[in-house]
Amino acid sequence: MRITIIGSGNVATHLSAALKNAGHRIVQVYSRNMHNAALLAYHVGAEAIDSLQEITGDTDLFIVAIKDDAIAEFVPHLSSFNKLIVHTSGAVELQQLLDFISNAGVFYPLQTFSKTKEVNFREVPLCIEGADESIAKMLEHLARDISNNVYRVNSAQRKVLHLAAVFACNFTNHLYSVGEQLLSGSGMSFDMLRPLIAETADKIKEHRPADVQTGPAVRNDDLTMQAHLQMLKKQPDLQEIYTRLSQDIIKNHNTRHGDK
Amino acid sequence: MRITIIGSGNVATHLSAALKNAGHRIVQVYSRNMHNAALLAYHVGAEAIDSLQEITGDTDLFIVAIKDDAIAEFVPHLSSFNKLIVHTSGAVELQQLLDFISNAGVFYPLQTFSKTKEVNFREVPLCIEGADESIAKMLEHLARDISNNVYRVNSAQRKVLHLAAVFACNFTNHLYSVGEQLLSGSGMSFDMLRPLIAETADKIKEHRPADVQTGPAVRNDDLTMQAHLQMLKKQPDLQEIYTRLSQDIIKNHNTRHGDK
């Protein structure tokens, strides 16, 4: 397929590299920032452009990989070509494209990308939605060219997915940060926690998280929890987070085990 | 060294295997449960015992790897041998051993062990404390036989380490579980989140967590946060956790960047 990439951020970068490696042709890379456009275009053998007038309709698919709130503004610049347009956002409804064009879909990679860190794209979950079944089928086919994990996800589900990712990833990363703060406050290095964090993430590759929950809350070890809250007495925000999460662990555990 | 293992749980199992592999001799494995004692003793070539009378003083070190609240009760059974005694707990102070014997220390592996999952012990952080410098040195030496990550940690620091581990690991695992619940409530599989969780943990191997924080809170994306809270309106506990963690992320970010 001939593919045009709108954007030059992390998603645009990783996605276009994966598509090119799978044998597709990246025709143009558009970015308001010519330097970024040129850098990405060079890597994927495409033409770099930074003006809307240079966008050509000589393509099969526009992938709009730009900030969420810029998508609805940008699409009118593409709709006159009457080619398939997809966005790559977890939070934006398909409807935002359908307001301008019926030939539309979503191609959402559920992963956290950094430009400096390689990702094995074959393991990235790709969440597909199409304005109709033939579009969905086509996007699914394209997705399978670059990933082993392709899912049909509607706009309502995609919002839930995004919310779940906030809990399981953004909040998780913040808890790593809390761990680091606590250690540095007592003259210890975050290196001490790194192997434990790696193992905690590794465990759920094969298990459901609730089945491998450990710690004072799931044991209902009240003495330890009280001691921990006491240690946090000068950090009321962390005390509150500790209490809320512990209560939720206890509640979940009791629900699973049929207690009240 | 000749080493006696008290206990047959996860820590006893992984620790004694690592010590034996490093060339030390496990003399006896004591457990109240003869089946467990025999299983572990078989693996490490030791004698299995389940009665206190059979414990011999013909050893250099007792490693007491049993539940926290059983340690103080057990130590009097060993103190008459006048050999070095260590416990392996993150939460128990060295003082609990010193009440019975001066020849005491702590040998705390900071890792989450499962009997069915292999762990590369060379990467497990071992936290050492000794009643005096010569004991600490000796334990440090022993620790280096089995791990590349050996730390001197006093009882106050060890408590902080344990608390930090609750945040970075126990609470993190619960957030994975929340993610799973949200997905299953919308007919989606936890498999969709697994690669993102793996990548989130992988990122902090090379970075400080605060440097790679992503998501709506750190971007101060109020519209998305409001939409997420709206989606959670029937789950007030999760709403509260969402709010508290987001506020803490915003506060941390502002502190780092010098805002009020």
UniProtKB/TrEMBL annotation, chains A, B:
Residues 124-248 form the DUF2520 domain. It comes from Mucilaginibacter rigui. Gene3D superfamilies: NAD(P)-binding Rossmann-like Domain (3.40.50.720), ProC-like, C-terminal domain (1.10.1040.20). Residues 2-86 form the Pyrroline-5-carboxylate reductase catalytic N-terminal domain. This is DUF2520 domain-containing protein. InterPro entries: 6-PGluconate_DH-like_C_sf, DUF2520, NAD(P)-bd_dom_sf, P5C_Rdtase_cat_N, TM1727-like_C_sf. SUPFAM superfamilies: 6-phosphogluconate dehydrogenase C-terminal domain-like, NAD(P)-binding Rossmann-fold domains. It comes from the Bacteria.
